[in-house]
Amino acid sequence: MTSASDQAIVRRLLALAPQEGDTGTRLPGVTLMRANSTRPPSAVLQSPTIVLMAQGLKRGFLGSEVFHYQPGQYLIVSVPLPFYCDTIVTEGEPMLALAVEIDMGLVFDLLAKMQATLAPSVELPSRGMAVVDLDETLRDVLERLLASLGSNEELAVLGPQLLRELHYRVLQGAGGDCLRSLASWHGRRGPIFLACEHLRTRYAEPLSVDALAKEAAMSTSSFHKAFKALTGHSPIQYLKAVRLHKAHELIARQDSPVAQAAFAVGYASASQFSREFKRLFGYSPAEAS
């Protein structure tokens, strides 16, 4: 049975996002999500994000694993992650969600203040994404955050504080394991996050797994194993996905010629690029423009 709070959250999202699609807000890093019909799986490159579900169902496909997230739950992606995602709409009710980019500077600041009272988790999440149940405390923050988005004054005064509280409540709950492990520079998660950031920002450069392992102070075999455990991809597969997504942006948003986009992201062969592009997205680079 849907609670009064859940119904209020749905009403606010419907009012804030009357049109289908992803809608940015005046609060940086906060996006409204709405889909009026079921969508098949599509390739995404997700930055560290919390997706709080209000209505409908979404699924993330990472290798052989499937992550279902629905009302009363949220998806937390703690590292930049390529995966497939679909949307399921039932009974004519649109999928509604709120996506909040994870602010790692804020996470570190909160952890420093929580250090004396918050013990680290014994067992770290095996993946850089997880589905977590939404508790009443976090649900209350979500409702107040949505209310602030409907008022310029409230957003200016309360918005940043509400984002800070949301990060804090996630850290307090089950989803905090993902963020604490990400922030643990002495564990195996922190160096892998840095490697992901390296590949995400320097994707056009040649890949040296040995060099990445050295930067992480790990053997090549240990680095490769830890990287795949967290991201579901080998470093080479991860880099390929990042390059293809970046090329997709160049072609679709900047009208870049296909060959130029391929070379810009690090491909030496335009034909190889076209084959791998179609394998990932299901259509050719020419069809993306």
CATH class of the largest domain: Mainly Beta
**How far do the termini sit from each other?**
45 Å
CATH topology of the largest domain: Jelly Rolls
**Helix and strand pattern:** HEEEEEEEEEHEHHHHHHHHHH
Write the CATH architecture name of the largest domain: Sandwich
Mean pLDDT: 90
Rg computed from alpha carbons, rounded to a whole number of angstroms: 20 Å
InterPro entries: Homeodomain-like_sf, HTH_AraC, HTH_AraC-typ_CS, Tscrpt_reg_AraC-type_HTH, Tscrpt_reg_HTH_AraC_N
Protein name: AraC-like DNA-binding protein
Keywords: DNA-binding, Transcription, Transcription regulation
GO molecular function: DNA-binding transcription factor activity; sequence-specific DNA binding
Structure explained in plain terms:
It contains twelve helices and ten strands. With 289 residues, it is an alpha+beta fold. The protein folds into two domains: 180 residues, Sandwich (Jelly Rolls); 100 residues, Orthogonal Bundle (Arc Repressor Mutant, subunit A), CATH 1.10.10.60. The strands form two sheets. A six-stranded antiparallel β-sheet has the order 1-2-9-4-7-10. A four-stranded antiparallel β-sheet has the order 3-8-5-6. It is globular. About 3% of the residues have low confidence.
